[in-house]
Amino acid sequence: MLRGPRRPKVTTMSEKGLQTVLSTLQPHWVGDGFPVRTIFDYNEQGEALSPFLLMDYAAPTEFPPAERPRGVGEHPHRGIETVTIVYEGEVSHRDSTGAKGTLSTGDVQWMTAAGGIVHEEFHSEAFTKRGGRMEMVQLWVNLPAKEKMSPPRYQELTTAIIPTVKLPDGAGSARIIAGGLFDAKGPARTVTPIDLWDLKLKGGKTVALPVPSTHTTAVLVLRGELRFGSRRAGPGELALYTREGDAVPLAAGAEDVTALLLGGEPIREPIVGMGPFVMNTQGEIRQAFRDYQSGKMGHLN
């Protein structure tokens, strides 16, 4: 359902400024099914982008029909949440909790690995047989120390339950996956305060959207161009804003813009990670590897 914006009381909002634009041009493969560009990771930008740890963007890629599904096989996670947004294509998921499902265009998977989970992700059987274009984003979200060893859980958020709101002054629309905007609230259950909005902005339009002051705010551009005075952010680039201010300004270039806004309350704790595990100490990382190798995180049949 497309909702109109609820007009807030007239107040003076201070806009966040642009801090930097991040981009990674060199793609790499995750398994044999996902050619991704890592826009940021916890080793380089963990503190600046907290509570977000990593973002992989799989730009639109055409896959021919095949007999065997492409993807990435069994692998573990601990201490984090993984959020997968499918913009085009179909991805099938299976994990050690028994959860399984297939994500189609517009669907979102929110997997809280927490104390440990093992999963796999492959192109669906139907997509494999017919071939087609795949585009997706995977985001890793940190968990606070007190939640890192909690039980894992899985949320499948279909496009049918994700509300869409109209932006003020005909600027476009936003799908609210997590958090809230105007009178809409996203269906994702998050451990810490998180905003995740799938934005469609009309070319030449500008809008300032309310966000909590001191929260990390960044916008990934998938199509079109966002403008910040003389600076630009184009497809596959992430605009990182300052934390000061309670509104995020968005100015579309001449063409329509598709973008993903992520915002969240920083987790001010040590970030110690290795591969799929992100904890608070080296000892916890070593324990995570031991637990996975001994089967304590489970396995897939």
Quick structural summary:
The protein has 3 helices and 27 strands. With 301 residues, it is mainly β.
Strand content: over 45%
What's the total number of strands?
A: 27
Helicity, in percent? under 10%
Largest sheet: 8 strands, mixed
Helix and strand element order: EEEEHEEEEEEEHEEEEEEEEEEEEEEEEH
Number of helices: 3
Mean pLDDT score, rounded? Answer: 94
Provide structural commentary.
With 301 residues, the protein is mostly beta strands. Helices cover 7% and strands 49% of the residues. The protein has helices at residues 42-45, 125-130, 282-293, and strands spanning 2-3, 18-23, 28-30, 34-40, 52-63, 71-77, 80-88, 91-95, 100-103, 108-112, 117-123, 132-142, 153-157, 164-166, 172-178, 180-181, 184-185, 194-201, 206-210, 216-223, 226-228, 231-233, 237-241, 247-251, 257-264, 272-274, 277-279. The longest helix has 12 residues, at 282-293. Mean pLDDT is 94; it is low at 6-10.
